[in-house]
Specification:
The complex is a heterodimer of chains A (about 425) and B (about 375). In chain A, about 40% of the residues lie in helices and about 25% in strands. Chain A is of the alpha+beta class and about 425 residues long. Classes of the chains: A alpha+beta (about 425), B alpha+beta (about 375). Strand 13 of chain A pairs antiparallel with strand 28 of chain B, so a sheet runs across the interface.
Chain lengths: ~425, ~375
Amino acid sequence: MVDYSLLPRHDVLCIDMKSFYASCECVLRGLDPLNAYLVVIGDRNYRGSIVLASSPKMKKEYGIKTGNRLFEVPRDPKIHVVEARMSLYLEQSLKIARLLTEFAPPETIHVYSVDEAWICVDGMERRLGNRWQIAQKIKDSIWERFGLPACIGIGPNKFLAKVILDIEAKETGIAECRYEDVPVKLWPQPVQKIWGIGRRMKVRLNQMGILTAGHLAHYPLEQLKKRFGVMGEQLYWHAWGVDLSPVTGYHPTKGQKGFGHGMTLLRDYKNREEIKTVILELCEEVARRAREAKMAGRTVSLGLRFSDWEKGGGFFHSFTRREPTNITMEIYESCLFLFNKYYQGETVRQIHLSLTNLVPERAIQLSLFEDRLKKHRLGFVVDEVRAKHGSASLLRAPSYTAGGIMPERAQKIGGHKAL
Amino acid sequence: MKIVATKENLLEGINTVQKAVSHKNTIPILEGIYLKAKNNFLYFAATDLEIGIECKVQVNVIEEGEIVLPARHFSDLVRKLPNTKITITYLSDILGVSIEYNEAQVHLKGWPGEEFPKIPDLEGNFQLELHTSLLKNMIKQTLFATSADENRPIFTGVLFEINDNQLSMVSTDTHRLVLRIGKINNNTERNLNLIIPGKTLSEVHRIMKDDEDSIKITGNNNQIAFQTQDTRIISRIIEGKFPDYNQVIPTSYKTLIKVKTKDFQETIERANLFSSEKDGTSIIKLSVKDSLLAVLSQSEMGKVEEKLPIYFEGDNIEIAFNAKYLLEVLKVIDSEDINMTLSGPLNPGIIRPGNHNNYTYLLLPLRTV
């Protein structure tokens, strides 16, 4: 048993924008987000294009939700099929984040994604009322100001706020889960409903006979630790509703551990040269962000996921350099080392790479056989040109070959059309 | 096979060959140590097919024979044995051995000895003999500057070059370069130029005993072998062309300083205390002015600034180096003072021992931003 009286009790709200992209589109088109039939898709010209969001009515009446394909959307004149305009949604998302700062100071807000945020409202009672009243006020102001529907989960920590949002508030609008409610509200839920348990973890847990959060909470902790390491411990405590992560003071740039970039490819890549082209392009992105932050990193990691008809799978490996770097070609060199060592001709669908082990760039170690200073300066010059004339204004030659993704990626945000 | 040995006998053999045991799991038998009992010697051998080490230890052989035992289990066991008479007997029914000591008996399974790849006798097309003390010193002074970067294999090795009666060993990781020259006598061989893997040299360094006078080296274009009285190491050679080191060592300079090795080393060690990096890298700024060398280092934790008296000629200069690269060389230089020549803040600095010219350490500076 967990003694809840020893655990901190905060007032944490987890705010989720209902069908965010779809709702934004409805508002921009003068439709009512709650009554319109609208789906947002990636690319109208491609029948397999994925549904990014659908309005509540679409979900309820047609069962079309995120992850469906364009060809599954019925052809009905009342259904609006629109292409994503990511930059507009981002703008809207920023405005909402700004609105939250009217309720509580910035350090209590953790913007988790484009449509989700946590806010800790400890000590706001005198000014704004209790946590339920505050949640209602936030929900109302988002509706009044932007015409967008929101749902809010309330909990004593970030985890429970998020979980109750997912399992209850998305239906009811606002819901709360206190520690006392964990056995009633959390335990009957199947494990995959718990935030942090994905498809693969679900299978592994189910194989151990763990089907619900309640099963997990009553599984011997030792066994979970043995099986899953520290993650096992986290799973166990989460199942009891315990989450000791700090509720305030989150800032994305603080303690930046690394720069990573990933890309799901638009088609299967099999040709080594084409895969290397994409790796080079991602190296450039990673290096650019490191340079922008005036950081350099020593560890380069490369991850490839194989296409489904390879039966999935992939690899993730790291290489630690002797000297930190933010020079594109040096990062690329390390990637190629990993690539040549581990890649065996599989069909690739997803590429991810990152630069970690960061240090502030205070000095550059010169080298005997190459002009590192020149290469280093070159990176900054290229960055400047791109900042001024657009990210696709100056590209490496391989980017213009068939494998290149940059010319197209430059038009996109989060992998979808920017406008 | 049946032998009687002491724990010390066995440990000596195991420790000598252990580094050559393969960890790659591709050929299971290579994870073993080969043992052969013959003529009152127990022969040990291990190889990962890149390097092979074999040695012999005098024991009491009752029955001759051979076996391969799993290296990890065998060595862990021997390390934990009491100091007493140990009998190892071949057991054909489990294809392994019985290890007996006091009233105890351990059974350990192995592989048939004849399946272990023989470490070949090298068909050498050159042969020479070096003083162990010289080779030991030369390895110590060059090996540390090799690179660990498997991307560029030639830099993971040390260049081994013989011109007439002079042996040069050179290593570099592209940030610094070491050249150590040694005199050899009665070299009857033609000139040589090959790159020996760093790992091999570190093993060679380990097997050379202080009471032995010389070590025999034989080799051809693919392999090289080192032989002491009881031990033999055979290794592949790294293919490729080592960069022309003579070209990168500058012959002129603008600033010359002479400083006490020990003082300089201790100063840098203090300055490096606040280094934020775990591996001892940090930025050390040197500033030479009016017969004083100022050493400065700064991090979030604090800063250290020290001034050392030096002999100095030429221009004033400010230059930054990686502390680790300075310390590594100061630790292996065995002269009381060093000469350091500099030619501007972005050009390589050179460190040489104060009393002789057989050692050159070239170090590229850091450019601070």
